Amino acid sequence: xxxxxxxxxxxxxxxxxxxxxxxxxxxxxxxxxxxxxxxxxxxxxxxxxxxxxxxxxxxxxxxxxxxxxxxxxxxxxxxxxxxxxxxxxxxxxxxxxxxxxxxxxxxxxxxxxxxxxxxxxxxxxxxxxxxxxxxxxxxxxxxxxxxxxxxxxxxxxxxxxxxxxxxxxxxxxxxxxxxxxxxxxxxxxxxxxxxxxxxxxxxxxxxxxxxxxxxxxxxxxxxxxxxxxxxxxxxxxxxxxxxxxxxxxxxxxxxxxxxxxxxxxxxxxxxxxxxxxxxxxxxxxxxxxxxxxxxxxxxxxxxxxxxxxxxxxxxxxxxxxxxxxxxxxxxxxxxxxxxxxxxxxxxxxxxxxxxxxxxxxxxxxxxxxxxxxxxxxxxxxxxxxxxxxxxxxxxxxxxxxxxxxxxxxxxxxx
Length: 414
Known about the structure:
The chain has three domains: 15-174, Chondroitinase Ac, Chain A, domain 3 (Sandwich), CATH 2.60.220.30; 178-281, Immunoglobulin-like, CATH 2.60.40; 285-409, no CATH class. It is 0% helix and 57% strand. The chain has strands spanning 15-19, 37-41, 47-56, 61-64, 70-74, 83-90, 97-105, 110-120, 134-139, 145-147, 150-154, 159-166, 169-174, 176-179, 182-185, 190-200, 207-215, 221-227, 231-235, 238-242, 253-259, 263-265, 268-270, 274-281, 285-290, 295-305, 308-315, 318-325, 330-333, 341-346, 349-352, 354-355, 360-361, 365-369, 375-389, 396-409. The chain contains no helices and 36 strands. 40% of the residues are buried. Residues 1-37 have low confidence and may be disordered. It has 414 residues and is mainly β. It is globular and about 80 Å long.
């Protein structure tokens, strides 16, 4: 999703093998896996991004990736001598993996006391799943993915932690998810949603991750529900959604699969787990809604260079635009400058991401996704947006609530 679109490195997922040997790696506070378990084997991740190193000795210390996606706390007394430890970003080849994986080095060192490996997850990591369904896994020397018991899950700080007495390649994966987690449909279009899960060997620590993903069994499914316009027909682990013939007032529609499953993470127990797919109904172009009224769609295009990007739409004498500075994809919050901005120009009436006499910055953001090779898609909220009416004397100002969605064809590489 970066660059608009960094190359997705091919991975090998879900080749099942029978393992008749006991893993000899130290696995911290849990037991070694049994001698007769099946686990998912994949190729090792490919290094990407910078490597970070730190000297840590008997007094303990912390090492983290530059983006703070992963951090490791090595406690005092875990080491007898000072050593160099490193963190290297890698492709995440774990079945149902989320985000980048990391290589923690050196692999051959065992800690006298467990270290704590913590992953910080993003909103995009939990789309189509739930934080309680996220797990951390490491890849053994045989290529098998192993998942230690979760030590803690903090949904406020968005962190997930496990304990370990060794270093290896580590990644986050999800045990259950809905696909697609987000969809952009034309009015009247249909989409089929499916649900999958990753099984794990029972009653063993660490668990072996068994892949590839399979359909969620019927005994773990309660029901499908729809919040919003359109129609939904659910049948066990799949459902079909049909969009309304016009852009609905409430956009997106939320399709939810309610599970019959309880998950324990550390000392906490999670019930009423739900998988949600957000489905936006939007024709090609940039569509804007003011104060929950009718949607207006503008014929639009996208352009960008040197970290500045803009989606611009026009319809006769009206125009609308969303611009942002930074990466081609992500979530960007409105700024007082034109770095992240919204503008809607109607005859003698202008809406912006600035409001009030003091020129306060509006709440909300623009969220851009370029995971599709054909389209640049996104949503935005301006709450409140400021408006200025030059048709009145004196000129009047006020605020409004604005929502938007865009679906624009990609032209070359941005």
